[in-house]
Each structure stands twice: as C-alpha cells, then as structure tokens.
Amino acid sequence: MHGWIGLWGAILGLIFGTAGVWLNHRAVLKLPMSQQRLNAQLALPDPAPTGAKEMAAWLQTALNQDGPPNTMRIEPAKPVAWTDKDKYAAGSVADFDAARAPALMQPERWVFGFGGPHEAIQAEYWRGNRSVGITTTSNGFVATLANLHKGVGMPVAWILLVDTLAGSLIFLSISGVALWMLTHRRRRVGLVIFGTSVALTLGLIFAQF
After folding, report:
1. Angle between the 156-183 and 10-29 helix axes, to the nearest 10 degrees?
2. Does the pTM exceed 0.85?
C-alpha cells in the first residue's frame, strides 16, 4: 500500500516539490520568476452594464474568455478622509469649517479575475467610469509552477486532486515510520532521529511567535 500511494502522488509531488523549493528560497536567494505585465483600458459599451454580474458577463465576451471570472470582489463606496485637514488646525474659522467639511466619497469598486496559472487577467472598474482597467500578467515556467502550487486560477477538481496528495503525504509519513519500526532492529537510533526532527520543526515554528 505504501508503494501504490507513492505512485499516485509521484507527479504531483514532483510539481509541488520543485515549486516549493523555489518559493522557499526566492526571497533570500533573489531567484527570478519571469512575469510580463500589460496594462490597458477597455471602453465600456453603450449602454454600460448596470451590475457586477452583467459586467462579468460582458468582460467574459470582451476578453475572449472561455468561462466566467474565477473571482469577483465588490467593495462598497466609502468616505475618504481629507489628507490636508491638519494644516487648518491653527487657521481661521473659515479654514476650520473647511477642515470639518464632509469627506469625499470613494465610488464602488468591482474587481474581476480571469485566466489560469499561465496567464492571469484582472479587470478593475470604479463605478461611474467609462472604461475598465485591464492588467494582464503572463507567467514564465517557474511562475506557472508556483501558481499551480498555490491553486491560482485552478478549478475545484484541481483543489480536490491536490487534497489527495496531501492525504497521501500524511499516509506515507505514518506508514513510513511504521514500516521502519517493523523492519529495523536499531529502533533507538530511529527514535532519536525522529525525535530530533520533530523538536527542530516545532522549535523553528514556535520561535516565530
């Protein structure tokens, strides 16, 4: 059973292992992740979509996407505090009244995410504008592997498949220790190695809290 489970997760383990090593050392060793970003503005049709769902459907067609957006975020309108009201603190009454003027309102913001691990498209729309901001990110090989590792732009089926890999790793860890205990006589040495690994792992984790 240990061997069969290992075969099931072999290719996924290779993908996740390669991406994991790269992500783990990227910040320290300054490892590059090739990406190209392109910014553009897409004019709205006339009449413009009135709701977020209508906007998502129109963007799917306008951007030639096979499916609906992977993510859709709606940020409600909110007041924006005056950035220069502090300069009125010692001023005249008129200046003081100006400082107490109602805050500006930031319009509602819609953000849509399309694409997959190789290419990601983000569409940003501020309600009331006549265009949508489009940011297209094209990823290189390593960046694509990293997105597969993180599940960026992947369907639910991929997430469930990765869950089977996680379950396989749990099983392999437990069965590997059990097989070692059953087939090796020098158990004390094995327990020392296992205990050292556990202590080192937990120590490094809790040292960050």
Report:
1. 100
2. no
Write the CB contacts of 111 (distance below 8 Å, at least 6 apart in sequence). Answer: 71, 72, 73, 74, 75, 122, 123, 124, 125
Q: What is the mean pLDDT of each run of 10 residues along the chain (209 residues)?
A: 74 81 75 83 93 94 92 89 52 52 81 92 94 93 84 84 86 82 74 83 77
DSSP element (H, E) containing 82:
none
8 phi-psi bin (left φ>0, alpha ψ -120 to 50, beta other): alpha
The confidence score (pLDDT) of residue 101 equals 57
Crossing angle for the helix pair 187-206 and 156-183, to the nearest 10 degrees: 140
DSSP notation for 129-175 = -SEEEEEEEEE-HHHHHHHHHHTTT--HHHHHHHHHHHHHHHHHHHH
